[in-house]
Amino acid sequence: MTASAPASLSNLGPGFDALGLAITGAGDRVTATRTDAPGVTVTSITAVDGLALPALPTDAARNTAARAAAHVLRVAGAPGGLALAIEKGIPLGSGIGGSAASAVAGAVAADAALGAGLDASALLAAALDGEAAVSGAAHADNVAPSLLGGLVLVDAAARWRRIQTPTLPPLAVVLPDVTVLTRDARAVLPPSVARADASAQAAGLAFLLDALRAGDWDEAGGRMMTDRLAEPHRARLVPVYDAVRAAALAAGAAGVCLSGSGPAMVALAPSAPDAVLAAMSDAAGPGARAWLARADDGAHVVRREG
Questions:
Q1: Cβ-Cβ contacts under 8 Å for 10 (sequence gap 6 or more)
Q2: Is the peptide bond before 176 cis (omega within 30 degrees of 0)?
């Protein structure tokens, strides 16, 4: 069974570790095949769409998809094991949930191959187990939207709510040719924040969610630029941050922010999406990837073998 899981944007300004959106334009696939031998093995890892990938671990204990699949195998209590073939379509360290998508695809493919029929909460737990293999912690802000689709609100206990919105306008997504690892991006964050910043962050997230639900794109775009907890510190890890941000706003974006740890940057572009995308891509420089994204419906089984 083959499962596909989409890329995702996280934080979206003030939604640090709490808000994520599944998007079109990039994703990972995992094919799970039942085996007589117990446990999970990784038989291949390949890149698609000309993506350049560093060497990824095939050790099942350190591979996100394999850990997620192993979690499903344990919960299902099925005999035998699983062999996984992984197709990466999301660059690592890009800020659009590459490790999360692999974990989600691994969990969904394993569930389908075993016929386990796990519910969303159980699949989320499996994918979070896989995500922890590389991020060091089970953060759900990329995993949940990649699995469930759309805009998802999460908390530290992995509780989640899908947020219903009108059809979102195009999102200009740009990946500068820079790698930012989640562990490094967390290391630059301060251990504590001022009460005024915490209060402003909470208000910013509340206003952002209300604006998105109401379809007030100008307000939503403005709120995407109000992060006080992470983006001011992580921006220095992305050398073209200021140039891309300025270019997006000058071209008519309603708002622009980092996605997750970066270097990905996303702009809400309801009126001039093509112009905004072109301006951001030019500012990001050589080697940047750019596309107009829409909200994605989440992970799904795409092919049944045999």
A1: 17, 19, 20, 21, 95, 97, 141, 142, 145, 259, 260
A2: no
Give pLDDT, residue 305.
56
Amino acid making up residue 144: A
Burial tier of 202 (Cβ tally within 10 Å: 0-12, 13-18, 19+)? exposed
Choose among 155, 141, 236, 229: nearest CA to 189. 229
CB count, 10 Å around CB of 8?
A: 32
CATH number of the domain at 171-293, please?
3.30.70.890
pLDDT tens readout for residues 36-61: 999 999 999 999 877 777 778 889 88
d(CA 178, CA 12): 19
Q: What is the CATH number of domain 2-162?
A: 3.30.230.10
CA atoms within 13 A on the CB side of 171: 27
Q: Is the pLDDT assigned to residue 135 strictly greater than 80?
A: no
Residues 6 or more apart whose CB falls under 8 angstroms from that of 234 comprise 180, 185, 188, 189, 258, 261, 262
Angle CA(213)–CA(214)–CA(220) in degrees, nearest 5?
80
Q: What are phi and psi of 57, to 5 degrees?
A: -70, 135
Give pLDDT, residue 304: 64
The one-letter amino acid code at 20 reads G
Distance CA 22, CA 5 (A): 9
Average pLDDT over residues 160-165: 96
66 confidence band (pLDDT: 50, 70, 90):
very high
The closest alpha carbon to 210, from 19, 6, 8, belongs to 19
Domain boundaries, the chain: 2-162, 171-293
Q: Are 126 and 118 in contact (CB under 8 A)?
A: yes
